[in-house]
Amino acid sequence: MHLAVALDGAGWHPAAWREPGARPGELFGARYWADLAHTAERGLLDLLTIEDAFGLQSGDHLTGSQRRTDRVQGRFDASLVAAFLAPLTSRIGLVPTVTTTHTEPFHVASALSTLDHDSHGRAGWRVQTSIRADEAAHVGRRVIPGVRRSELDTARGRALVAELFGEATDAVEVVRRLWDSWEDGAEIRDAATGRFVDRDALHHVDFEGRYFSVRGPSIVPRPPQGQPLVTSLAHGYAPSLLAARVGDVVFTTPHDADDAARIVTQVRTAERAAGRTAPPLRILGDLVVVLGDTDAEARDRLARLDARDPLSSDAAVLATTPSGLADTLLAWRGAGLDGYRLRPAVLPTDLDAIVDGLVPELQRRGAFRTGYTETTLRERFGLPRPASRYAAGADPALVPAPTPTGATA
């Protein structure tokens, strides 16, 4: 199965930074993140994701309210963290979160192309939108009225979400076109003839849509993967449709095996609605994990954390042993999940338990790799390297489908 880890500050539990094994004094230091990445790579994990946003952490991710001084506040830029982890690692995928709502696609394409070059084909992108009014105010170029959770299912809430997802769809399409705007081998680098680049192998992308007008080409040569891995998180049908239109991997939040089966059906329905044929989305389930040597120890750890500051989570929270977690992962995989993205409740404690406890248990059961074999992140997910859509004779089967939102080429 695929196994990823989601890194966020001191861990996914709000009281994580107060735990004995936590390293709150090092959260804003390179060594902390390097240690986490080295541990994840030692565990042969597929990839790590790095959380990011335009606003400070909040108890309510929709409104930005409930900001508290007894919780971790502040974070590094995820794409820059991934960039300095690239030369410190060799095999694990590096997938920073980059928000489409306030970030220009040209900048995203350049940053992630650079990351793919630096990591020799291990870059990915977790696409995220921003619905918070305070985050829009930080940038100052647009006004987003914001919406409360109780308003999400109103006409106003649905319209705002649809607009942000429509913008995200176009943003990813622009980025993908920019990644294709340099053909493979466009750099000639022939000092004898004085030709560094083949101008005929660089292409204007000429994207004209509702949200963006981008001419191109990119300033960065084509990434080693051609198209770095595009991922997103989906809690319902609308974000599943976004993933089906533009993504390679979708993270979901099942709460039991039946829920996992329902989510898989929902994602496949979204794929048909989006006109997606192949390859199918790889579906990973998100789980917050609190691990211990016994179930009682794990439950006690969670109870101690919750007593300090209760956890509110979109994903299921499992307090168990590595063996018990392996049982759950294998049982839920029968619903059609391709793997999991685990969210350690406390870092580095629960990441260590994943690598030193869960991984060996899955290996003993023949359910997880015993070594890295693939070179790139796309290869790890069984995805072919696509041809540039602008190259003469490009195989249509290997060219990403155009955006379905009506934007013109």
Description:
This protein is 34% helix and 15% strand. With 409 residues, the protein is α/β, with parallel strands linked by helices. The strands form three sheets. The protein has an eight-stranded parallel barrel, surrounded by eight helices. The protein has a two-stranded antiparallel sheet with strand order 5-6. Strands 7-8 form a two-stranded antiparallel sheet. The protein is globular. The two termini are 38 Å apart. The model is unreliable at 404-409 (pLDDT under 50).
Concise synopsis of the structure shown:
The protein has 409 residues and is α/β, with parallel strands linked by helices.
- Give the oligomer, counting copies of the same chain as homo and different chains as hetero: single chain
Question: Helix segment count?
Answer: 11
The helical percent reads 25-40%
User: In total, how many beta strands?
Assistant: 13
Distance between the termini: 38 Å
Helix/strand order = EHEHEHEHHEEEEEHEHEHEHEHH
| Structural class assignment | alpha/beta
Uncertain runs with pLDDT below 50, 5 residues or more?
Answer: 404-409
Strand order of the largest sheet: 1-2-3-4-9-10-11-13
Q: What is the CA-based Rg, rounded?
A: 21 Å
Kindly estimate the percentage of residues that lie in beta strands according to DSSP: 15-25%
Task: Tell me about the largest β-sheet.
Answer: 8 strands, parallel, barrel
Based on CA inertia axes, which overall geometry fits?
globular
